[in-house]
Design goal:
nine-stranded antiparallel sheet, 62% strand, single chain, 154 residues, mainly beta
């Protein structure tokens, strides 16, 4: 299928936050490969400008999120990358800096049982702590049983 989405980027006007400031959203659809959903990527950027939602703390900075995905007959893969830094001022005076990639692998999607593998790689940091994920893996296995009914008659 043609790359009909190629080159599309959408910029929203700045959205006002509840207690002052704003957030701007930029959506990038320029990297879709197949519109049938079998593979591609898209991303978005959030830009915070003194955004205050709780009346106490304001956020400044940028976060970028990129989604890559591909699927076949029996499996699918998705990579989600977060990168950026937010400064927080108010009751909390700190920052959050993140450069983290999460990869999800779904195996045997057509079966009644299956597994999901999640890998984390990268860092999350504040002024007091930093944590590094070094390709840490989480395995989730799902059985094929349906949940019991909640009416008490199961």
């Amino acid at each position: 299928m043609q790359r009909l989405m190629s080159g599309i980027t959408l910029t929203a006007d700045k959205v006002d936050c509840a207690h002052g400031g704003s957030v701007k959203l930029l959506v990038d659809l320029s990297s879709f490969e197949n519109l049938d959903g079998s593979s591609g990527s898209f991303g978005f950027d959030l830009e915070y400008d003194d955004c205050n939602e709780d009346g106490v703390n304001a956020y400044n900075g940028k976060l970028k999120m990129l989604f890559d995905f591909s699927s076949g007959t029996d499996s699918a893969f998705m990579t989600l990358r977060f990168k950026g830094k937010l400064d927080i001022n108010g009751e909390i005076d700190d920052y959050l800096e993140v450069d983290l990639t999460q990869t999800v692998s779904l195996v045997d999607m057509g079966a009644t049982t299956g597994s999901v593998t999640v890998k984390l790689h990268g860092t999350i940091q504040t002024s007091e702590q930093s944590h590094t994920y070094d390709n840490e893996t989480l395995f989730i296995t799902v059985g094929g049983a349906l949940p019991a009914e909640l009416d008490g008659n199961s």
